[in-house]
Amino acid sequence: MKFWYRQRISFLALLLLPLSALVWCVSRYRYRHRNQNTYPIPVVVVGNLTVGGTGKTPTIIWLINTLQRHHYKVAVVSRGYRAKPTRSYPVLADYTDTAETIGDEPALIAQSTQAMVVIDPDRHRAVQFLCDLPAGQRPDVIVSDDGMQHYRMARDIEILMYDTLRGLGNGCLIPAGPLRESSQRLSSVSLVLAKQQGPQLPESAIEVAQEVIALAKNREGVELPRQTVNIHTAIGNAESFQRTAESVGYTVNRTVAYRDHDKLPLEPIQRSDFPVLTTEKDAVKLSSWPDNVYVLPYELKYGPETAHFLLHRIQELIDEKRRHHSRTL
């Protein structure tokens, strides 16, 4: 919604403010009545304050890889947006699952990290399922893919992804603006992260990632030299992806943006007059991979201070929960 990001509140936003006031009331009620009964396993939520892509999925992949390098067993819970599972919730993903059955982001996370992935619209139920697994299968840490506003699920650490390019827009809650809940939440989360530098840095402390980007590759692993391309993508922030492609050295002739999580139609791709660049998230949804499609690899890395803070806090939580559990036996 372009009017969300205008400096002044537009007439359309003014018309929608009564609905935003209702959203504010509901979000405040849910926050005040949030589940504060923690689980026996630490839960880390990585989510957004605003609508749209902020680098949440690559941040989750970085976090999982960091934890796995330090020998933690990690599981992920996700809503599984637009998933069509073949079995009842909660669904523990296995080798038979695809982006269609578990959702594009869970599929990408599972492929990239080999971590356990459980999808369920009720994230509390998904976490409880993991906590109830036999001791040998139970994870050490649970990472929630989004779910910042899913207050039925308790959490120990909240990581908020901030959009430094667009900021908080007009500062209004949806549908008058891009906020999912009040901007006051910025001061109550454990950590604020951003995928890139930008003009809309918040006043609160923020850690900006280092973007690791290479040349795009096709399904055979052949790199695409820097040249003119078309972009076809169905992510939350196509404009940001275009900037990323241009930063690598590609000249973007046209960007075709579909609704977030949509499956890319093959016909327009096959008719493209230039090679087609797309994202890793889009690629996991392709039923077949045309020869002219190239995926731009994208990775985020955060500094050692951020990694140390999270590792130290997670180990503290594990130790606390084990001591509490031993006292209750």
Automatic annotation (TrEMBL):
ATP-binding as UniProt keyword: yes
EC number: 2.7.1.130
MF annotations from Gene Ontology: ATP binding; lipid-A 4'-kinase activity
Record-level GO BP terms: lipid A biosynthetic process; lipopolysaccharide core region biosynthetic process
Positions that bind ATP: T50, V51, G52, G53, T54, G55, K56, T57
GO cellular component, one term: plasma membrane
InterPro entries noted in UniProt: LpxK, P-loop_NTPase
Keywords: ATP-binding, Kinase, Lipid A biosynthesis, Lipid biosynthesis, Lipid metabolism, Nucleotide-binding, Transferase
Superkingdom in the source lineage: Bacteria
Enzymatic reactions: a lipid A disaccharide + ATP = a lipid IVA + ADP + H(+)
Pathway note: Glycolipid biosynthesis; lipid IV(A) biosynthesis; lipid IV(A) from (3R)-3-hydroxytetradecanoyl-[acyl-carrier-protein] and UDP-N-acetyl-alpha-D-glucosamine: step 6/6
One protein family per Pfam: LpxK
Family recorded in the similarity comment: Belongs to the LpxK family.
PANTHER family: TETRAACYLDISACCHARIDE 4'-KINASE, TETRAACYLDISACCHARIDE 4'-KINASE, MITOCHONDRIAL-RELATED
Role noted for this protein: Transfers the gamma-phosphate of ATP to the 4'-position of a tetraacyldisaccharide 1-phosphate intermediate (termed DS-1-P) to form tetraacyldisaccharide 1,4'-bis-phosphate (lipid IVA).
Entries under NCBIfam families matching the protein: lpxK
HAMAP family linked to this entry: LpxK
Name the UniProt record assigns to this protein: Tetraacyldisaccharide 4'-kinase
Native source species: Reinekea blandensis MED297
